[in-house]
């Protein structure tokens, strides 16, 4: 089960990143040499979070007591009395995507007359937190079986976190982050006298699952807090 929350409210994003543009007279707005001003305005956004997803993963595990071995050259497995024990562990995670504008410069802006093309930095994806829903953990323990140990539960919880990380490339969060970033920046550039039809927002490369997983691996220990 998973849910996704999209941050699409532009005025909220504008307030958070501090991006503001000077008002212009619509009837007299004409593009001038605004590249330095444009760069300055975009740099003010600093690290701009443009997408956030909530993910819920339920880790389920069951085992049975069995005796395994080899007898007369043949493998055998014998289920012992006592029944099968099982556990379900819900894990909630928060995944965010942001764009870091700290290194944005005039090299990211290409202007041709009334047309302008902005190449934005690549979105960064981080798993910012994971939390075990301890109140919702369920165990089924037969009479002759012992409860799961803390070590066993910890190992299962780690498996759940790893499964969440592997599922992140399929969420579409990079696409959402790009769309939201473009939606935020286009009005700012329009205020400098450019027509919306003359503004192009591009990114340097396409993100594949391997790229996202590499990012998450590099940032996991710095950003994740587990409870």
Would you summarize the structure shown here?
This protein has 227 residues and is α+β, with helices and mostly antiparallel strands.
List strands and helices in order, with pairings.
Elements: E1 2-5, H1 10-17, H2 35-43, E2 47-71, E3 74-100, E4 109-112, E5 115-120, E6 124-132, E7 138-140, H3 150-167, H4 173-190, E8 199-203, H5 209-223, E9 225-226
Parallel strand pairs: 5-8, 6-9
Antiparallel strand pairs: 1-2, 2-3, 3-6, 3-7, 4-5
Structure notes:
There is one protein chain. By secondary structure, the protein is α+β, with helices and mostly antiparallel strands. A hairpin with a 2-residue loop joins strand 2 and strand 3. It starts with a strand and ends with a strand. The N terminus and C terminus are likely disordered.
Would you tell me the structural class of the helices and strands? Answer: alpha+beta
Low-confidence stretches: 1-31, 221-227
Instruction: Please state the CA-atom Rg, rounded to the nearest Å.
Output: 26 Å
Number of helices: 5
Helix/strand order: EHHEEEEEEHHEHE
The averaged pLDDT comes out at 75
The largest β sheet comes out as:
6 strands, mixed
Beta fraction: 35-45%
What proportion of the residues is helical, as a percent range?
Answer: 25-40%
**How widely separated are the two ends?**
20 Å
Strand tally, please? 9
